[in-house]
Write a structure and sequence with these properties.
The protein is of the alpha/beta class and about 210 residues long. It is built from 7 helices and 10 strands. The strands form 4 sheets. Strands 5-6-7 form a 3-stranded parallel sheet, with helices on both faces. A 3-stranded antiparallel sheet has the order 8-9-10. Strands 1-2 form a two-stranded parallel sheet. Helix 3 (about 90-100) links the parallel strand 5 and strand 6. The model has no long low-confidence stretch (mean pLDDT about 90).
Length: about 210
């Protein structure tokens, strides 16, 4: 597990991760403060996201070098927003991974995700609103979800996993189109739901 950490907030995060002995931690320390994001739970969920540190060119190249050290036996999940100073992060990393035949998953905003498609990610995981944003449309039916999932595959994604909230999810792949329902229960909050879905896909894919 590697990335960029900064200041006392980064050190706090690092100490928490050290409690998990199965993690191989290879973080790069940079100037500034690792950002703190606040999630407010009410009738409507609200996010307050800090900007995070400004990454210098030397540190950015150090991070890219970590990806160059990987092999086809590794598996990479690219998710979230790119740090300041790393605007081309997704396309740069995807290029490296593609060149070394390393499978990778992308779960990111429109611009970051689109920049990776020419490198054929194994999976992209937009929710329905992100899918609408990618194609600048309003999706009104399950058929349209599938149609735009197919369009995303034509742009380069090998598999497209679209989360639909309480309506479950749709997987559009070369092998076919699959729909999964949501287990019944009470929703406490949805923080991390998309990350969990991506992790679950990768776990099962590697097993089977």
């Amino acid at each position: 597990l590697f990335g960029l950490i900064a200041g006392f907030t980064g050190q706090y995060l690092l100490e928490l991760l050290k409690e998990k002995p199965f993690l191989n931690l290879r973080f790069i320390e940079v100037d500034g403060l690792t950002r703190i994001n606040v999630k407010l739970k009410g009738k409507q969920e609200t996010e307050i996201n800090a900007p995070g540190p400004l990454i210098q060119p030397m540190d950015y190249q150090r991070m890219l070098d970590r990806f160059r050290d990987l092999t086809p036996e590794d598996f990479v999940i690219l998710s979230g927003s790119a740090p300041r100073g790393c605007e081309n992060l997704y396309s740069d990393v995807a290029s490296i991974l593609h060149r070394h035949d390393i499978p990778f998953v992308v779960d990111a905003n429109k611009c970051s995700l689109l920049s990776t498609l020419r490198y054929h990610p194994l999976l992209i995981k937009p929710n329905i609103y992100e899918l609408e944003d990618i194609f600048n449309v309003k999706i009104n039916s399950l058929g349209e979800v599938i149609a735009y999932g197919e369009e995303a595959r034509k742009l380069g994604a090998q598999n497209v996993l679209i989360s639909l909230g309480e309506e479950g999810s749709i997987l559009v792949s070369e092998q076919g189109i699959y729909r999964a329902n949501v287990p019944k229960g009470e929703l406490i909050h949805s923080i991390g739901a998309g990350d969990s879905m991506a992790a679950g896909f990768v776990y099962k894919y590697q097993k089977t």
